[in-house]
Amino acid sequence: MFMDELDAVLRDQDEGLKQLFEAGLALTLQVQDDAMRAETPEARARLAVAFHRLSRGVRQTAALRAKLFHDRQRAAREAQVHADTRRNADIAARKSAISNSVERLIETGVEDEDEQLDAYEDLATRLETESLSDDFLDLPVPLQIARLCQALGLTAAEEASPARPPESGDPGAVPASPVAGPVAAPRAPDDLDFDAAPPLRPSG
Description:
Elements: H1 2-37, H2 41-109, H3 113-131, H4 141-152
Helix pairs in contact: 1-2, 2-3, 2-4
């Protein structure tokens, strides 16, 4: 966004300088024609001084236009280098994420070591080829992983996520196991009524 605004400002400046250059050049040529038609040496000398000043301004305007043109080119090159650097970094990060995911599936899904090595090499070749496509950063990562797994004969399975407590409106939550409440202490049977027992009689 900043580079677009800067480029627009430079274009406006160049357009203004172009008009100034054309007007200054036309006036300078007119003064030069007037000097050539002057009837006296004094008038010719005065017009010659004016011509010198005007022509210097025209040259400075032309030089400034050239400088702005080179500045625009340099800014465009720097913006392109920055964009390429950022894109390369994004591509490398995505390739690493995809490669790590598929390599784990190769490790768990291919038992033979030689076949594992072949699968790793095939993955690296296919991933490098896909990263050269213009839409590599636009496609969803799960789709890219699934496509590579299909090409390698693997089963793309999502890694199991740890259970999390259920929340309202969260269909992926795993319900928590019910927790038993505190166990009540046993109470004495109701039929053990000591007051209802007959009193002991004294002996004799």
